[in-house]
Amino acid sequence: MREYHHYSLVNHTTFGIDAVTDRFVEYESVDELLSLLPDLQNTPFLQIGAGSNLLFTKPFHGIILHSGIKGISVKEDDDSVLLKAASGEVWDDVVSYAVKHGWSGMENLSAIPGEVGASAVQNIGAYGVEAKDLIVEMEALEVKTGQIFVIPNGDCCYGYRHSIFKDLWKGRFIILSVTYRLQKSFVPKLDYGNIRTELERNLGENYEGILTLSQLRETIVNIRHAKLPDPKVLGNAGSFFMNPVISRDLHMLLEKQGFIVPFYEVDEDRVKVPAGWLIEQCGWKGRRIGNVGVYEKQALILVNHGGASGEEIVALSDAICQDVKSKFGITIHPEVNFI
Length: 339
Hints:
This protein is an alpha+beta fold. It has 8 helices and 20 strands.
C-alpha cells in the first residue's frame, strides 16, 4: 500500500489540473482496502481510476483512493467467455487481452482511457457499444459494513453514461472486479461514426469479407488517436460533453429553421445528436480563452493549454452550454465529473 499526504493530483487526472488532496492511498489487495475502512467512515473520500473523467475545481479535503488490484481470469463455454478483471486493470489492456484471444465485444471500446472499476460506474461507451452491453456482474465492497456483494447488471440501473453508483449508491460501494461476457464468434458493429469509411479506405470496398477482430480494434484506435489529443501533451478528459437526446419534434423544428442536424436513432420519439456538431456550429471549435480552449480537431474536447485551473475549465464549459442552448434550444451536459 502506498500512502501520501498533502499530495498533488496533477499526475492522476488527464486534465493535468494541479489540485491537492489531504491524503492519497493506493491499495493493492482487498485486505489493504479493508484496513482503510475505519478511516472512511467519518472522512470524505473519493475512489478514482485513471482520472480521465474528473475535473478538480478545488483542493480535496479528504482521502483519494486508487485501486492497485490486478488480475484477469476467464471461464469459457462453447460460444462465449466470462472475463473477470480486477478494478485496477487498465481498461484498454483488458480490451487488448480479449482481442488477442479472439473474444469479441469490447473492440469498439478500444483506446478509451481509464480503468476497469470506472467502466462499471460510468457505463463507458463508444461507437455503438456500451459497457452495460457486456457486464454480467461485479464484486463490490460496501464501505459501511466491509461486506463484499456480487451485484448483477440488472441492479445497476444502467443508462447513457449513467449507473446507480453515480447517484443512489454514490459512495456506498467500491468496485473490486467486473465480469464481462464476450463472444467467440466475431459479429462486428460498424454502423456508428466513420468506422466504415476508415475500413474501406484501409482495406478496400470488400472489407466485410476479410475484416478481422484485430483489424477492427486497430481501426478504432486509429480513429480515436486522430481525433483526441494526447493528454500527456495537451491536458484533456476526452469527450467533455454527453451527446444530447432530443425529441423528434424538436429535431424536425430545427430542420424547418434551416439546421440540418445529424442524428442517431434512439426510439420512435427520440434521436441522439452529436454535441460536438452543435458546439462547432456555435463557433467554438479551435477557440482559446487564456489557458483553456476547445480542441482544433474535435469540438467535443476541452483542453488545458498549460497552467489552467479547474474553475477556468468550468467557465468555458458554462459558456459553451449557454451558446448551444441559445442557438438550438438544446441543453448539453458535461460527461466529466466536477469535484
